[in-house]
Structure formats: structure tokens, C-alpha cells
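Progress report, Aim 2. The chain analyzed during this reporting quarter is listed below.
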Amino acid sequence: MSSENVLLTDEALKLLVKCEGLKAVERHTKVLKGQRCENSAEHSWHASLACLLLREYEPEGIDHLKVLSMLVVHELVEVNAGDYKFFEDNYDEKAAAELQAANDLFPADSTVPVQAVRSIWFEFEFSDSAEAKYAQAIDMFMPTLVNCVDDGKAWGEYRTSRSAFLAKKSAIRDGSEKLWELFVSLVDFSVTKGWIDSK
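Predicted C-alpha cells for the chain:
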């Protein structure tokens, strides 16, 4: 039996192969001290690692494994939908494209393993639990951390203000008050460096 025939008869294997394409989806955050942008697979790995390392910022009672699972799968839809610029793109357009991608990648009538991925993704996307809110907080926090360490490189293109930046990423606070405090400290540091406008 050829490998092609095996893949075509197993939905989980087909999804694994399809999602390998996440490595080719370019984001808008630069890799640390590099010239190229990270890809969505790298971002997902980094966010997942953050989940393991930032345990002190987790709200009490959080299901840690569920948060980790969400961060592993949360960007899979970008295989079909691509990445969106955080400060520029239309949120409604982004949400519609990602919802369509989710239904294409993990259909409602798919097998149990694929259904599990679907369930995790939808819970994350619609903030349906404390775990989803915390996973979203980590997802939004990580580019800020990398940009601060990288001298605000990716922010030079957008020149956002402190107030607009805090408003845009306010969901971090919904996920973790402790992570929000750390995030604000990074933003204020960036203001002192001139990477983000003070107003």
C-alpha cells in the first residue's frame, strides 16, 4: 500500500499533513535578532513553551493541559486563512475567514481525533472558558515580549500609542491579572525607549 493511500483513508493523518503547511505561513513578528519574520508554527511552539514556563501567571484552578492543547492548535486555521496584521486588518473579515478554515480543516462530521481538535479550537476562539481566556492571553503576550527584547523592531512599521496598544490587547487582563501586569510593564518600558508613543 502506498503512503498516499494510507493518508487518504485516515482523517487524522490527513490533518497532520495539511497542518505541516503552518511552517510556511509568515507572520509579522520578526524572529529575535533576525531579519526574517517568524512563521505560525514557530509562534505556536513559542506560545506552548510559554504555557509550560509561565506557571506562576496562571489563574488558580486552570486546567494546564487544556491551555497547552489550545496553544498547540490555535493557529492551525492559518494554513487556509493566512495571518492577519494585528493593527491593520479587519477583525470581522479575519474571524469569518478563520471560522471557514476551521470548518474546512476539522468538519463537524469528522472522526473522533479530529473532532477533539475542532472542540479545542472553537473553545479557544470563542473564549468559552477560563482556559481559553488564559491561552489567548499568552498568545497576545508573546509577540510583545519578543519585540521588547528585539528593540521594538516590529513596532516601527505601525507607530502605535500606549493607550491604543493597551486597548487592543486588553484581553490579556481577562486571562490573567498577573500576566497583564507584566505586559503593562513591558509596554511602559517600550514607551521609555520610544518604540511606542506615550499618549
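The longest helix spans residues 130-149. The mean pLDDT is 89. These observations will guide the mutagenesis work planned for the next reporting period.
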